[in-house]
Amino acid sequence: MRAMIAALVLALMPALLHAEAAQILPGALALGPEPPAAEAPLPDERILAAATAGVAVLMHEATKAVIEVRVSISKQMMEVRHRGELVYEWPVSTARKGKITPLGSFRPQWLSRNHKSSLYNNAPMPHSIFYSGNYAIHGTDQEAKLGRPASAGCVRLSRANAKILFAMVVEEGKDRMRVDIVD
């Protein structure tokens, strides 16, 4: 699907760059008034521009986050939204004193169902969703510490909750998830 969209966009790119094509759908795109009749695009240019606008919408929808995770460091909580609806609120553990959990907005880079830490004595990190280098959202065997800072920087969840989130990401695709970590 992505390859087909990319090929279509490349084929339609000249119309995107053509000044008249940008005014073909003024109501829908709010790009300006209809050109004078003498300068009006030909019917095939209108079709091309309409298709181009459709491709832009499809590309946006294909990369739009349908899983939105918000981690609050101050509250030690995670909110999970699926297609805009709040579906889960879970306690987490983020970085303990002297360590950091990076703030910002991230996209998952890779997933690992049964990861073992290469930095911390092969510590189990089940259902890992790596979002920034070695930083991941993952399950923990130290569930009693959830709700307060305890990690070396990762976002820890209960094993059950990490499994749920991991399954959501596998189903929707990692490119359809966004992780926001805030103070």
TrEMBL record:
GO terms for biological process: cell wall organization; peptidoglycan-protein cross-linking; regulation of cell shape. SUPFAM superfamilies: L,D-transpeptidase catalytic domain-like. Pathway: Cell wall biogenesis; peptidoglycan biosynthesis. GO terms for cellular component: extracellular region. The active site is at H138, C154. Residues 1-21 form the signal peptide. InterPro entries: LD-transpeptidase, LD_TPept_cat_dom, Transpep_catalytic_dom. Residues 67-182 form the L,D-TPase catalytic domain. GO terms for molecular function: peptidoglycan L,D-transpeptidase activity; transferase activity. Belongs to the YkuD family. PANTHER family: L,D-TRANSPEPTIDASE, L,D-TRANSPEPTIDASE YCIB-RELATED. This is L,D-TPase catalytic domain-containing protein.
